[in-house]
Design a protein that fits this description.
CATH superfamily of the largest domain: P-loop containing nucleotide triphosphate hydrolases
Helix content: 40-55%
Radius of gyration: 30 Å
CATH architecture of the largest domain: 3-Layer(aba) Sandwich
């Protein structure tokens, strides 16, 4: 065919201005030009788009690119138009276009101007679009972000599974499927669903040597850590991923309040504002985008210098793709992730209500993410192993674990114990079950399978779970064990594992990283740190006692301990600065603050203390939109359970919000709701308890009051008490 004689390098130079192809690009393009189905597995930044853009320009007809993201379509269409004098060379059809715009697109396609048409899968399924595309000569179909087809992918979209039947309806043409993240299971799923099992597969290495990977423990000082990190990076571009839209909004506001040029980006933002924020980021009018993990950004910006995960992602595929947005130009890319086991528990909670099979898949993906975060093995090695690629180097020199290696210990006997236990249960169970057996735990599952009678039961009680987890995780990477991720994570022994059992060799492991639990998410979160000034803290406690005595209220009603600790850390000396302390709103600062500020100022002068101005995180006004609407609803006497329902949050989460409001000094009257649901004597008993108590801790109150009182009741009366006594 004619394409064999095409000088592709000359065409590449002519259309895109590049002198050479990257990696597999040329082979992929030749395969597509020859009319063959093609499967492309190439990491973010490897140049996937070019693999269908250049063939579209060289072939007759229009190439159809199926893409899940409106943002990505706009981005790519704009990019294609810069390579051509003709705007009509690339178009997209999606829900953002009006009727007139769609007619213009169709006219350009019929006139032969349009070489690439981007469509969302939902638009492709519309009958009028199918009818129209039947009349068009189609050069090929490109399925971008093809992992969306698989339930085992990190971004499963059911409508993607309808692509093949629709292609059959419109008219056959070669298919090229492209993805940046796919385990062998996901790859198989994609090929099977698209009916392209015979496609030639082009797989590039997943290794991105320029990316630095680090996992940090998530503590209450995370905002301060992030602000300090960004401020040390002088106007460099970065993306921060959060789990919820609410956190995206809050963090973007906090960054702005601290002089960082940041904007939010998530699906709930008006599309006009979202597009503006995206364009401003691309044009470098803003430095940082704060986005939800769920909402893929699809931004082709080559010089993103850092990607921060505020919350751990739901899967390693998601993590790999999101971190892959850093350093696409081959320059520096720092990938910092904040991790606490609590985030995983939250993610598991989100899965409740989904079909059991989906929950099982989700849980298994979370187990892999936790293993990555907690392991002290080279991050690169762990990531590449997950994607079915072996990384031979012992030390990559560009991740936290390799730059701070832990001491290795011999674990030959421990590995033998693990292999024996896996074989004893016929390779039919997951890691946590194997550890239960080794540790001799008589759980209901172990007893039901009669595995407490096995010889290996209790054979490893001298070690803790953390060590056994490390043995299993590192044996997987070493190739002694394998885990069928898609088969719910059952552990199997490989031939190398059987050989090891017959002829044990040295097997050294490093202990997993220790991520201590982050503080409870009480309304008083944050502020305290190891920099507390003990002398000042003691003086502030004395002053609080004096004030509380004068007002006849318990000391915690004035300020809680974490607020005093924060004051003894950042030394606020004005009422405005005092409002930046967690748990201190304007009302509280005005009512009690003056004496505290004077004491702190005097202490600083007498001891010549330099206040840490540069590190003081300026918080935004605590009354976010959510808080304002809660206050308004309570003013209108809306039942609290109805407020929670309307906000789409749990009742306990609503109480968290209300507690934060009253602890910061705003008065709220929830008597109308308490009186409706609580017995008067009951209410009085709890109220009297808080009047007499020196602490406002709920656990202490429940211990003292006994089983007749629920946690929700005690929390609501505490809100009433704080509101009336303190505010």
């Amino acid at each position: 065919m004619a394409e064999k004689t095409i000088n592709l390098t000359a065409q590449l130079k002519k259309y895109f201005g590049f002198d050479t192809f990257k990696g597999n690009q040329e082979a992929i393009i030749r395969n597509l030009l020859a009319g063959n189905d093609t499967f492309v597995l190439m990491p973010t930044g490897g140049g996937k788009s070019l693999c269908y853009q250049l063939p579209a320009l060289l072939l007759q007809g229009t190439g159809i690119v199926i893409s899940p993201l409106i943002a990505l379509m706009k981005n790519q269409v704009d990019a294609m138009r810069t390579f051509s004098e003709e705007d009509g060379i690339a178009h997209f059809i999606n829900s953002s276009l009006n009727k007139g715009a769609i007619e213009q697109v169709r006219a350009d396609i019929l006139s032969g101007k349009t070489k690439l048409l981007y469509v969302a899968p939902e638009s492709l399924t519309k009958e009028e679009n199918i009818e129209f595309l039947r009349t068009v000569k189609i050069s090929f179909y490109a399925v971008d972000e093809a992992h969306c087809i698989s339930e085992w992918g990190h971004d499963f979209r059911p409508e993607y599974r309808r692509i093949r039947p629709i292609i059959n309806e419109i008219g056959k043409a070669p298919v090229i499927a492209l993805t940046a993240t796919a385990t062998p299971k996901v790859q198989h799923d994609i090929q099977k669903n698209l009916g392209m099992s015979d496609a030639q597969v082009f797989k590039s290495s997943f290794n991105r040597p320029n990316l630095y990977y680090e996992v940090r423990s998530k503590t209450s000082n995370i905002d301060k850590e992030i602000i300090k990190y960004i401020k040390n990076r002088n106007d460099k571009s970065g993306i921060i991923y959060c789990l919820s839209r609410k956190k995206v909004e809050e963090l973007a506001e906090i960054l702005q309040a601290n002089g960082i040029n940041a904007r939010p980006y998530h699906a709930g933002i008006d599309s006009k504002d979202r597009t503006k924020n995206q364009d401003d980021f691309l044009m470098e009018r803003i430095d940082v985008i704060v986005a939800t993990i769920a909402f893929g950004m699809g931004i082709d910006k080559p010089d993103v210098r850092f990607v921060i995960h505020y919350d751990i992602p739901k899967s390693l595929e998601g993590y790999y793709q999101e971190t892959g947005r850093a350093g696409r130009d081959g320059g520096e890319g720092q990938c910092i992730t904040f991790y606490t086991n609590k985030d995983l528990q939250k993610l598991e909670k989100f899965m409740q209500g989904k079909p059991i099979a989906e929950q099982e898949i989700g849980k298994q993906l979370l187990v892999e993410t936790a293993a990555y975060a907690e392991s002290s093995v080279c991050r690169r090695k762990t990531l590449l192993h997950y994607f079915g690629e072996e990384y031979a180097e012992e030390n990559c020199g560009n991740c936290d674990n390799c730059l701070n290696p832990k001491k290795q210990v011999e674990a030959q006997e421990l590995l033998s114990t693990v292999i024996e236990a896996i074989l004893a249960v016929n390779e039919n169970f997951k890691a946590d079950y194997i550890i239960d057996i080794i540790q001799g735990r008589e759980t209901s599952a172990v007893q039901a399978h009669l595995h407490d009678d096995l010889e290996v039961f209790g054979s490893g009680m001298g070690e803790d779970d953390k060590t056994w987890n490390a043995v299993i995780r590192q044996a997987l990477i070493a190739g002694y064990l394998e885990k069928e991720v898609e088969n719910y994570g059952l552990l199997k022994v490989t031939p190398a594992g059987h050989e090891f059992l017959q002829h044990p060799a040295s097997f050294k492991i490093t202990e997993d990283n220790d991520f201590e639990e982050s503080e409870d998410d009480t309304p008083m979160r944050g502020g305290a740190s190891c920099a507390v000034d003990p002398a000042l803290f003691s003086m502030l406690k004395d002053l609080r006692k004096k004030v509380s005595k004068k007002l006849s209220v318990p000391p915690y009603v004035v300020f809680q301990d974490p607020s005093l600790e924060a004051m003894a850390t950042v030394y606020p000396i004005t009422l405005e600065e005092l409002q930046n302390i967690p748990g201190v709103g304007k009302g509280k600062a005005t009512r009690y603050g003056r004496e505290f500020c004077e004491l702190i100022k005097r202490h600083c002068e007498e001891n010549e203390i330099e206040r840490p101005e540069d590190l003081r995180v300026r918080t935004v006004a605590n009354k976010s939109k959510m808080k304002v609407s809660i206050i308004q609803a309570i003013d209108r006497k809306v039942a609290l359970d109805d407020i929670a329902l309307s906000k789409g949050i749990e009742f306990g989460e609503l109480l968290d919000e209300i507690e934060a409001i009253v602890y910061s000094g705003t008065k709220l009257n929830i008597d109308y709701f308490i009186d409706e649901i609580m017995d008067e004597d009951h209410l009085q008993d709890i109220y009297d308890y808080f009047k007499e108590s020196t602490t406002d801790k709920i656990e202490d109150a429940l211990d003292e009051l006994g089983d007749d009182f629920t946690e929700e009741e005690v929390r609501m009366v505490r809100i009433k008490f704080i509101s009336e006594m303190a505010n």
